[in-house]
């Protein structure tokens, strides 16, 4: 246990030294990432524009610090920003955007099982074939973030629960690699995702109540 804390302390010390060269671009990415989350919590479609620019910056930053899967993840985020915008604008049966939904526990258990297997396979490949830092953690956060971003685009309520766990694990990765502002951002994320979950759940209940009223009126 003492070796773990010594390693963590050394990582933090080294990280502060490396952070200076990354600060400017990282600061821009952090501000845009914050804008994305706040707008997403409110269900504002422009969250996807902020996401696109922020992830473009992070794609380069993560590549420079050898978080290879995190870099690839952000290329995916850029594509999902376009998809998410389209879904919130033109998705759904009526092509007027998607509503917030909640998926069954059994569906989530299947998603977790499949994603975990994929993460282990990718982590093993990265550990044996690449110079990636923290290959298994990197692969796990990447794979679950890929799946969870899709849930955001589909407006699945439980995406916030996944983000809580992903963000908690990511904090250690970012501190270890000198991305201090990003680590701080993810600490804030942990608190904000809780509010995001509550806001989306409230909106979902309002939508369900409105749908019930509409059905009742149509039956009369």
UniProtKB/TrEMBL annotation:
Ranges that cross the membrane: 20-39, 46-65, 71-88, 109-127, 133-153, 160-175, 181-200
Highest taxon, organism lineage: Bacteria
Signal peptide: none
Coiled coil residues, start to end: none
Keyword annotations from UniProtKB, A to Z: Cell membrane, Membrane, Transmembrane, Transmembrane helix, Transport
Location of this chain's protein in the cell: Cell membrane
GO terms for cellular component: plasma membrane
GO MF, one annotated term: nicotinamide riboside transmembrane transporter activity
Membrane topology of this protein: Multi-pass membrane protein
InterPro entries named among the record's database cross-references: NMN_transpt_PnuC
Reported function: Required for nicotinamide riboside transport across the inner membrane.
Family the UniProt entry places it in: Belongs to the nicotinamide ribonucleoside (NR) uptake permease (TC 4.B.1) family.
Protein name: Nicotinamide riboside transporter PnuC
Organism: Shewanella pealeana (strain ATCC 700345 / ANG-SQ1)
